[in-house]
Write a structure and sequence with these properties.
By secondary structure, this protein is mostly helical. It is about 75% helix and about 0% strand. It starts with a helix and ends with a helix.
């Protein structure tokens, strides 16, 4: 279930621009989680609400890009690496920890560094 929900999250938010995600976090999602007052208004006057929404939009956008980079790095390795770990008698967790992830980190590190630099530069300019 965890893998399916993660894939669904990535597939939904992967190609959605940040400005659209900001719109969703500022205007659409709060309507689902807010109780209406007696006057019918659903405005939130809590201090820091704008900052938390901005952080949620930025975090969801960045997390989807990072998840896609990690998935691409792991999928770029030959299938024989995983099979070799299993053939040596390692469990799947041990295979990922000792065989696949060390090789994948060398592939994943340059795009993750670029993503970190882009996201820190973007957040600093706001």
């Amino acid at each position: 279930m965890g893998g399916a929900s993660g894939n669904l999250y990535v597939e939904i938010f992967r190609n959605v621009p940040l400005i659209v995600q900001m719109f969703l976090w500022f205007f659409v999602f709060p309507e689902f989680f807010r109780k209406r007052s007696a006057t019918g208004s659903s405005r939130c006057r809590r201090p820091g609400a704008r900052t938390s929404r901005r952080c949620c939009a930025s975090a969801s956008s960045t997390s989807v890009r990072v998840a896609e980079q990690v998935r691409a790095g792991i999928n770029s390795l030959p299938r024989g690496q995983r099979m070799a770990g299993i053939a040596m008698g390692l469990t799947e967790t041990q295979t990922y920890r000792t065989v696949i992830l060390p090789q994948a980190f060398r592939i994943i590190l340059p795009p993750l560094t670029s993503e970190f630099m882009t996201s820190s530069r973007t957040r600093r300019s706001r």
